[in-house]
């Protein structure tokens, strides 16, 4: 849901007190229809914004999904989505180009290739965001992209576009962990955390190349499986 802050309520964003990923309670707000026909939450002069810090009695962080739970896998991105949240690793960076707008001002654009275990997609970065991300974008960097536009590229392939309304941040190792229930055959670069549930079993096996190797096998569990 889109949230719209009015007048002095925008100060909480400008000061950095409210940031992406925060668990937040909105009180005395009201709803309205946005320009795209979807319901928006509006916070005006009578509204109250409260950033939840450390698990008060009636709120626990575990009751709320993290942003990563709303990320769309690259292979699942479609043109119908219009806006998308996704995450992945920077595979390749391309040069920055400048261009002249119709009003004779100069703009900037650059592209990079983002990949995850399901596929890859071109990310197009526009204008001020090119400068903002210059210290973040590097080959191998793991990023989360929030509220990017989905568009068709020149070759009819899908692209995601990053502009002033998009949030991009590095992803920490902890946030990259997969849940056991989400694992399936063929995934690469998988990070998972769990509890060892059985005593390890050791055995010697011979590979297809004729090499003798030692294996240790045990069961791992988390809250999902």
Question: What layout of secondary structure does this protein have?
Answer:
Layout: E1 2-5, H1 11-14, E2 24-27, E3 30-33, E4 39-43, E5 48-51, E6 83-93, E7 97-100, E8 106-116, E9 119-126, H2 128-132, E10 142-152, E11 158-162, E12 167-170, E13 195-196, E14 201-206, E15 212-217, E16 220-221
Parallel strand pairs: 1-4, 9-11
Antiparallel strand pairs: 2-5, 3-4, 6-8, 6-10, 7-8, 8-9, 10-11, 10-12, 13-16, 14-15
Structure explained in plain terms:
The model has no long low-confidence stretch (mean pLDDT 81). The radius of gyration is 22 Å and the shape is globular. The protein folds into three domains: 2-63, OB fold (Dihydrolipoamide Acetyltransferase, E2P); 67-173, OB fold (Dihydrolipoamide Acetyltransferase, E2P) (Beta Barrel), CATH 2.40.50; 177-221, no CATH class. β10 (142-152) and β11 form a beta hairpin. It is 4% helix and 40% strand. It has two helices and 16 strands. The two termini are 31 Å apart. The chain has 225 residues and is mainly beta.
Name a few traits of the molecule.
single chain, 225 residues, mainly beta, OB fold (Dihydrolipoamide Acetyltransferase, E2P), 3 domains, 5-stranded mixed β-barrel, 3-stranded mixed β-sheet, 2 helices, 16 strands, 40% strand, globular
